[in-house]
Design brief:
This protein has 325 residues and is mainly beta. The chain is built from no helices and 24 strands. The protein folds into three domains: 46-124, Immunoglobulin-like (Sandwich); 141-220, Sandwich (Immunoglobulin-like), CATH 2.60.40.10; 233-321, Immunoglobulins (Immunoglobulin-like), CATH 2.60.40. The strands form seven sheets. Strands 19, 20, 22, 23 and 24 form a five-stranded antiparallel sheet that branches. Strands 6-5-8-9 form a four-stranded antiparallel sheet, with no helix packed on it. The radius of gyration is 43 Å and the shape is rod-shaped.
């Protein structure tokens, strides 16, 4: 007997044998048999990525290439500690992201994901690389510098605490003009010393606090430059001026081979007449003019040195001048 099925057939139809066609072309299974189609487990999710945060990890992945003949209704995220499954997290629906919370900062975790259809979980995705939840350290505070000859000693205060202890600091000296790193140290104390710097060159320092997982926000120092006292002063010229319409005077011109890197180069001139001190002149110029007693055959003695903010350099060899022999 031939029967035709109406349009309200419930479920999915799969013919188990040969069937006949109704006048409207609808295929009718033999013996009126109706069965569900074959369903398999969904495939493994792909391209799992994990991003660590504070006591949590965010995950994202791609849906599997095959849903197994049935719709995916959710996913299961597996959390592993030290290679062992610690817990699982159901993720309903077809979304491909999840966030795992309640993790211990600093502890390593790995993850995988399985897709779920009407047969349950399918195979797990490839295991992620290990990640460690963490907080990012705050910036250190109040860098100070003590600059001396080709050297700087840096010190700072620790950052405000935020839940994970600081285990070290990364300190970098930067050439200010080129913005290039000159030297880097990792220290556990609140100070670092750098040598071999160039006197007079401007530098900056960058300090980063590190916990056991990640480095924090950097702090930059003020500009500093190493310096030392100037080298010995050099007297280039001594001349007696007396015929230019001005009072008679001795003019000394001087220089220095090495300023020591200081900002405030100056010269000090100690003056004696007939063996007695008669004055001291400090000047930022490279010369000094000392008035003399007219027609007095006494001898003037000059001692010159250079100075900067680091101190006074060695004196030049004394110069003696007798303007009226």
């Amino acid at each position: 007997m031939r029967r035709c099925l109406g349009f309200s057939v419930v479920g999915m139809l799969v013919a188990l044998g040969g069937g006949t066609a109704c006048g409207d072309g609808t295929e009718v299974p033999a013996n009126n048999a109706v069965v569900v189609p074959h369903i398999e487990q969904a495939g493994a999710p792909e391209s799992l990525t994990v991003t660590a945060g504070d006591s949590r990890v965010s995950l994202s992945w791609n849906a599997p290439a095959s849903e197994g003949g049935g719709h995916i209704v959710g996913y299961t995220v597996w959390v592993f500690e030290e290679g062992k499954a610690a817990r699982s997290l159901p993720v309903p629906g077809r979304g491909t992201t999840a966030e795992v919370t309640g993790l211990v900062n600093g502890r390593p975790y790995t993850f995988c994901v399985a897709a779920t259809n009407s047969l349950g979980d399918g195979p797990q995705s490839a295991r992620s690389a290990a990640v460690r939840p963490r907080v990012v350290p705050n910036a250190p505070r109040d860098i100070t510098d003590l600059s001396t000859n080709q050297k700087v000693v840096l010190s700072w205060l620790p950052p405000e605490p935020n839940g994970m202890p600081i285990v070290s600091y990364t300190v970098t000296v930067i050439h200010r003009a080129t913005n290039k790193d000159v030297a880097t140290q990792t220290v556990t104390e609140l100070t670092a010393t750098f040598t071999g710097l160039t006197n007079g060159v401007e530098y900056l320092a960058r300090v980063v606090a590190n916990n056991e997982v990640v480095g924090g926000t950097p702090l930059l120092s003020a500009v500093f430059h190493p310096r030392t006292i100037p080298s010995v002063a050099i007297i280039n010229k001594v001349v007696f001026l007396h015929d230019d319409g001005k009072p008679p005077r001795i003019r000394l011109e001087f220089a220095v081979a090495d300023t020591g890197g200081g900002d405030q180069l100056g010269f000090g001139v100690y003056i004696q007449f007939r063996g007695a001190d008669i004055g001291y002149t400090g000047t930022g110029d490279h010369f000094v003019e000392q008035p003399v007693y007219p027609n007095d055959p006494g001898t003037y003695r000059f001692v010159v040195n250079a100075f900067n903010e680091a101190g006074q350099g060695p004196s030049a060899e004394a110069i003696e001048v007798t303007p009226y022999p």
